[in-house]
Automatic annotation (TrEMBL):
Biological processes, Gene Ontology terms: tetrahydrofolate metabolic process
Listed name of the protein: Sarcosine oxidase subunit delta family protein
Gene Ontology molecular function, alphabetical: sarcosine oxidase activity
InterPro entries, alphabetized: SoxD (IPR006279), SoxD_sf (IPR038561)
Organism: Borborobacter arsenicus
């Protein structure tokens, strides 16, 4: 599988570290709501199809990336910096067809 880093270009998935589901919202760090923390830490969905994930380019520039990957085909359709998610859509790097 290839992931196209906005800094480094297309790289093999072996250069990256999976950081988790990109759709989850962390509870307020000061929260003492045990149910909210249990849900955040333990509950996971297992979607079939396009899914937002966070990856770190640990073998390269070390940037954290938001990747849209199809969980059935492993085709990566979009890559952007995680820090820009939802803020500057014009700077997203769309790479349709980048796959294994």
């Amino acid at each position: 599988m290839l992931i196209t880093c906005p800094y480094c270009g297309p790289r093999n998935v072996s250069e990256y570290t999976y950081q988790g589901d990109g759709n989850r919202t962390r509870p307020d760090p000061a929260s003492t709501d045990q149910a909210a923390w249990n849900e955040y830490v333990y509950d996971r969905l297992n979607p079939a199809g396009d899914h937002h994930e966070i990856w770190q380019h640990s073998g390269g520039c070390r940037a954290h990336l938001r990747v849209t990957r199809n969980t059935l085909t492993h085709v990566v359709t979009e890559v952007s910096f995680a820090r820009d998610a939802g803020h500057r859509k014009s700077e997203r790097h769309r790479k349709p067809g980048a796959h294994a």
